[in-house]
Amino acid sequence: MREGIAAQTPVLVELLNYKKDGTPFRNAVLIAPVFDDGGRLEYFIGSQVELPANADGPSVNRHQNAVEIVSSLSPRQKEILQKMAAGFRTKQIAYQLSLSEKTVQMHRMLLFKKLQTSNAADAVRIAVEAGL
């Protein structure tokens, strides 16, 4: 199965890093594509979060929690979240789903509320963790 940067799909990985004093710490790092209005890859965005030392990695509890949260979304909100995770912007999502931009923005705000976030980067991270 082809995934990640080569396939232009979001990818979430766990990394072991070291602080300046040599103390190890773990990060969950998300890299996701962003496409231009023509559907061509424009750039990738990255986001990271430090994991507590005793926490399971992204593939265990984070996956289960993300699946649970995403299951609370309406079918349209899930569809919009999937498009966001695929790197599409609001205008592109509206065109693809034959909706107005305002309707897509409304669904985005509602799904942000359900996901308990205020930004697209966290929403995409949750989508990737849930396996969307």
Pick out its properties:
alpha+beta; Arc Repressor Mutant, subunit A; 5 helices; 42% helix; globular
Overview of this protein structure:
- This protein is of the alpha+beta class and 132 residues long.
- The protein has one domain: Winged helix-like DNA-binding domain superfamily/Winged helix DNA-binding domain (Arc Repressor Mutant, subunit A, Orthogonal Bundle).
- Helices cover 42% and strands 23% of the residues.
- A three-stranded antiparallel beta sheet has the order 1-2-3, covered by helices on one side.
- α3 (90-97) crosses α4.
- It is globular and about 50 Å long.
What name goes with the CATH superfamily?
Winged helix-like DNA-binding domain superfamily/Winged helix DNA-binding domain
Terminal residue distance: 15 Å
CATH class: Mainly Alpha
**Quaternary state of the chains:** single chain
Number of strands: 3
The order of strands across the largest sheet is 1-2-3
| CATH architectural name | Orthogonal Bundle
Radius of gyration computed on alpha carbons? 16 Å
Q: What order do the helices and strands follow? A: EEEHHHHH
Helix content: 40-55%
Secondary structure tally, helices: 5
> Which class of secondary structure composition applies to the elements?
alpha+beta
